[in-house]
From TrEMBL:
It catalyses: a CDP-1,2-diacyl-sn-glycerol + sn-glycerol 3-phosphate = a 1,2-diacyl-sn-glycero-3-phospho-(1'-sn-glycero-3'-phosphate) + CMP + H(+). The lineage of its organism: Bacteria, Bacillati, Bacillota, Bacilli, Bacillales. It is found in: Cell membrane. This is CDP-diacylglycerol--glycerol-3-phosphate 3-phosphatidyltransferase. It is a multi-pass membrane protein. Its main location: membrane. Its EC number is 2.7.8.5.
Amino acid sequence: MNLANRITLARIFLVPIIMFFLLVNVKTPHIRIEQFTITYNQIIAALIFIVAASTDSLDGYIARKRKLVTNLGKLLDPLADKLLVSAVLVSLVEMGKLGAWVAIVIISREFAVTGLRQIALLEGRVVAASKWGKWKTGVQITAIIALLLNNFPFEFIHVRFDLFASWVAAIITMYSGFDYFMKNKDVINWNEQKQ
């Protein structure tokens, strides 16, 4: 259990804490500025999410720099990312801040690409992260933060950035999934030929 894996595990342990602040009805005061309203719970959840999301690059960087790349890390890192994003998306749907279809598209893509990676791994191949996969992660995190913060600060200029970011996240997520499968379709074809 090295430092990189500990950081990844910390990201997993932050997931239920974020969900607690989002879903458990804890009576906390609201912050009100003109027409904008947000609870302290949402602010705390957003801050924890930002910390958790930022550790995604940190654990990978530490593992590569210190040569601490392990099989456990290869398993935990993508699992932690998917748990974090999926849990917050489901919470946002429950709170009425996100359409269920957006969450379904994003979560389905994550499962599909994970399945593709597992098939490739069984054949001794590694499906590397693509530029679209990196864009997808960045846009998803941006959309989630905007939703968690009730569209702050764009609410003051009456721009639905949170809605726009959610749509962009769904579109880029679908495209990046399609891109992974097109670039690695030989993995599936090879398995079919083998059978």
